[in-house]
């Protein structure tokens, strides 16, 4: 009986260690607080056009669309509420689209990055 309990405790400990090691968070295992409660995506898993837009954001442009860098108002209320001017939006090219399409990257002054492919109906936090 004692041997059975010891074996059970060891199995339970192994299970806990295994579960603690499993995570859908960023590369270091921690999801930033600004992404709490949202779906996340690693930057490398974004469409190539979104990664290119992020490269342009990181280098300060030049941007292909006139509205790139415009203040994003967050009127949908899906991102954390911040003062006006906190968020900025950038177009993600959509192959085959005759206009800007529905894909955007939105950045926050605190380093947050969000991606939408449905024109602000939903957002995914981008882990960089």
From TrEMBL:
<keyword id="KW-0732">Signal</keyword>
<dbReference type="InterPro" id="IPR000026">
    <property type="entry name" value="N1-like"/>
</dbReference>
<protein>
    <submittedName>
        <fullName>Ribonuclease domain-containing protein</fullName>
    </submittedName>
</protein>
<dbReference type="InterPro" id="IPR016191">
    <property type="entry name" value="Ribonuclease/ribotoxin"/>
</dbReference>
<keyword id="KW-0540">Nuclease</keyword>
<keyword id="KW-0378">Hydrolase</keyword>
<feature type="signal peptide">
    <location>
        <begin position="1"/>
        <end position="25"/>
    </location>
</feature>
<dbReference type="Pfam" id="PF00545">
    <property type="entry name" value="Ribonuclease"/>
</dbReference>
